[in-house]
Amino acid sequence: MSVKVLYFAWVRERIGKAQEEIEPPAGVATVGELMHWLAGRGEEYASAFANPRVIRAAIDRTHVPPETRIGQANEIAFFPPMTGG
């Protein structure tokens, strides 16, 4: 299953790209598992996902917690917490 992954703010800066199409392995079923798998793809990903507890995610533009199943997602986005001001 191929899915578009979007990266925002410092997540994008650390990885060095705004988006990509990926095919996670069959064992990757949740957003949290996807973050863990991505962290293993190289130094830039490891840096971006070093502290997954601070990363926020959205599936098809709906905010979701890490335990959410990816299912048939078309798009998954990762971004840091948003602040007001």
TL;DR of this structure?
The chain is α+β, with helices and mostly antiparallel strands. The chain has one domain (3-79): Ubiquitin-like (UB roll). It has 3 helices and 5 strands; from the N terminus they run βαβααβββ.
CATH class: Alpha Beta
Low-confidence stretches: none
The name of the CATH superfamily reads Beta-grasp domain
Radius of gyration from CA coordinates: 12 Å
Query: What is the N-to-C succession of helices and strands?
Result: EHEHHEEE
Biggest sheet layout = 5 strands, mixed
What is the helix content?
A: 25-40%
Q: Averaged pLDDT, please?
A: 95
Structural features, described:
The structure is a single chain. With about 80 residues, this protein is α+β, with helices and mostly antiparallel strands. The protein has a single domain, classed as Roll (Ubiquitin-like (UB roll)), CATH 3.10.20. Helices cover about 25% and strands about 25% of the residues. The protein contains three helices and five strands. Strands 2-1-5-3-4 form a five-stranded mixed β-sheet. A hairpin with a 2-residue loop joins strand 3 and strand 4. The mean pLDDT is about 95.
